[in-house]
Specification:
The structure holds two protein chains of two kinds.
Chain A: H1 2-17, H2 19-56, E1 58-63, H3 70-82, E2 86-92, H4 94-103, H5 108-111, E3 123-129, H6 135-144, E4 151-156, H7 157-203, H8 206-214, H9 219-260, H10 267-273, H11 275-299
Helix pairs in contact in A: 1-9, 2-7, 2-9, 2-11, 7-11, 9-10, 9-11
Chain B: E1 2-5, E2 12-14, E3 24-35, E4 38-49, E5 53-57, H1 64-72, E6 79-84, E7 87-88, H2 97-101, E8 104-108, H3 119-128, H4 134-147, H5 163-175, E9 181-185, H6 193-208, E10 212-217, H7 220-226, E11 229-234, E12 237-242
Classes of the chains: A alpha+beta, B alpha/beta.
Chain lengths: 304, 249
């Protein structure tokens, strides 16, 4: 126990005594962890975004005013609701359609002619699928039924939205892949830098290692303090990275949220919700990297 | 049974002997070290007995340090063998090496003190790394610092000491384990004549207390002063072995 305490104390003392070198190693470790964390956060955002986009894919059927009663439409809605994969069916009558119309951010001159007295807005059923990929199937099911004649011409919203949604999804997939690739690339560079600076800190203490070996320190005792230092690099790197992430999230979340507001992604909230997972991953990677590099670097001094 | 050297386990023991009978501590048999085609040490055979004071002399580069590195097992002979306390060092496993080194003390020309530790801490460090209890460390370090006459400088850092004091601190560190063998590799190389004689006298006193001392040096006055056994090396070979010799090239 006394030996263990000595090893920990020695590791801590060495870490503090060579503070400029260890600060360099800690900052590089922080950089590595930031690379990895940014990649993780990016992947979380894109995942969240993709889910939101997919949840926005719905099918809206508009009905001719003269062809069908409200009760028939709700009955049709109930039938559709029973089909597999349908999550929600919402009926919008003419009054509700007018309310939505009035809320639309469009020119008042276009809005004004439409009102209680003249309301050409069609009634509609909004159908949300559990899986957006099933929507195509739903469209063909409804289209084959004889209800076709009561539906407005070209009034199924899905087909015109599909192209935009698909493009958005492919962009998010590309951003996700490009982000991962870039983070991986910079992450590897950062890992090499961490390896090099830890090796430099150990080489700078070659004399000390030599003395320890002359006076009969066991290999475990020589290696121990360096492993403690490796752990400290990981722990401090994690603390700095977390502070950096929270600060960046806090500073930029306002502008990011403005961009993504229609998709319902709250950047700061996203980080807060996943904070412990992020810290856990950073700590595991940081400590593991510090310990492995320190052990490998000190090993070559333990041969003779 | 008298314990000679403890090297890991099992403990090395030798039968108790008559105090007048010389017990070999170091035996080298045709020890040779080659670096490529060049031989740093060539065919050295010698025996050093317990309690001896041996001066290993010769000019720089004749192989004194390589011979010493055989004993600290920093180097192994390319051919031949080296025995310490009856144990062939070639058989010593890596895990046993720290325990072996705790049984020999080594002193260098450049002192090899840790600059950020005080004299006391430098000496205590040798015991700390071996897991000795704190109270025991305090007692043993105080005792050895008194022996080298550095008690009053124990809280000073190496940079605050003279060359002679630094070397005495290094000797204290080498002795704190209570080794059977003390190896001094050019311990006076960086010292002025007064400090040189102080160190040589200290080594002599340590030897008088029973520790075997090997002093590698090219300092003629130091060797002539103590009138002990002199081994002379030339071009990697042991060329003379005088019982109470002088430094003669």
């Amino acid at each position: 126990m006394e030996t263990f305490q000595r090893i920990v104390k020695l590791g801590y003392t060495n870490f503090w005594r060579n503070r400029w070198l260890t600060l360099g190693a800690t900052l590089l470790m922080t950089l590595t962890l930031i690379m990895i964390s940014v990649s993780l956060v990016l992947s979380l955002i894109v995942q969240d975004l993709a889910t939101t986009i997919r949840s926005k894919i719905d099918l809206t059927i508009y009905f001719r005013d003269d062809a069908v009663l409200d009760s028939d439409i709700t009955a049709l809605g109930d039938r559709i609701k029973l089909q597999n994969g349908v999550a929600e069916v919402t009926f919008t009558d003419k009054r509700a359609a007018l309310t939505i119309w009035n809320r639309l951010p469009i020119n008042e001159n276009i809005k004004r002619p439409v009102g209680e007295s003249y309301n050409p807005l069609p009634r509609s059923l909004q159908i949300r699928s559990e899986n957006p990929d099933n929507i195509q199937g739903l469209v063909s099911t409804i289209a084959t039924q004889d209800s076709q004649k009561i539906i407005c011409n070209e009034c199924v919203s899905y087909s015109k939205n599909k192209e935009t949604v698909d493009r958005l999804l492919s962009i998010t997939r590309f951003v996700q892949k490009a982000g991962l690739f870039l983070s991986l690339f910079f992450g590897i560079i950062a890992v090499f830098n961490v390896m090099n600076i830890i090796r430099i800190t150990i080489n700078a203490r070659a004399d000390e290692i030599e003395i320890m070996r002359y006076v009969g320190a066991s290999n475990a005792f020589v290696r121990g303090p360096f492993i403690v230092e490796g752990i400290l690099y990981g722990v401090l790197g994690t603390i700095f990275t977390t502070i950096f992430l929270l600060l960046i999230a806090y500073l930029v979340s306002g502008s990011i949220n403005t961009v993504f507001v229609s998709f319902g992604v709250d950047f700061f909230q996203l980080i807060i919700v996943n904070l412990w997972t992020l810290i856990g991953i950073q700590l595991a990677i940081g400590v593991l990297l510090g310990v492995i590099v320190s052990s490998i670097s000190v090993r070559r001094f333990l041969k003779a | 049974m008298q314990e000679i050297l403890t090297v890991g386990s099992p403990r090395l023991t030798r039968p108790a002997t008559d105090s007048k009978v010389k017990v070999p501590l170091i035996e080298m048999k045709a020890a040779t070290k080659k670096y490529g085609s060049r031989a740093a040490v060539s065919d050295v055979t010698l025996v050093i007995y317990e309690g001896e004071f041996v001066c290993l002399v010769g000019q720089s580069g004749v192989g004194k340090t390589t011979l010493i590195k055989f004993l600290t097992k920093q180097e192994s002979p390319s051919s031949g063998s080296v025995f310490v306390a009856g144990r062939n060092l070639a058989d010593l496993r890596g895990s046993e090496l720290p325990y072996y080194r705790r049984k020999i003390g080594v002193v260098f020309q450049d002192f090899k003190l840790l600059p950020q530790k005080t004299v006391f801490e430098n000496v205590a460090f040798a015991l700390e790394v071996c897991g000795v209890a704190r109270a025991d460390i305090l007692r043993r370090v105080e005792k050895v610092l008194d022996l080298v006459n550095l008690g009053r400088r124990k809280n000073n850092y190496p940079s605050e000491l003279s060359g002679g004091e630094r070397q005495r601190a290094a000797i204290a560190r080498a002795l704190v384990h209570g080794p059977k063998l003390l190896i001094a590799d050019e311990p006076t190389g960086n010292l002025d004549p007064v400090n040189t004689f102080e160190i040589i006298d200290l080594l002599y006193r340590i030897n008088q207390k029973g520790t075997t001392v090997i002093l590698a040096t090219h300092n003629r006055q130091a060797v002539d002063r103590i009138q002990k056994r002199v081994l002379l090396m030339k071009s990697g070979k042991l060329v003379s072995d005088q019982k109470t010799g002088k430094y003669v090239i």
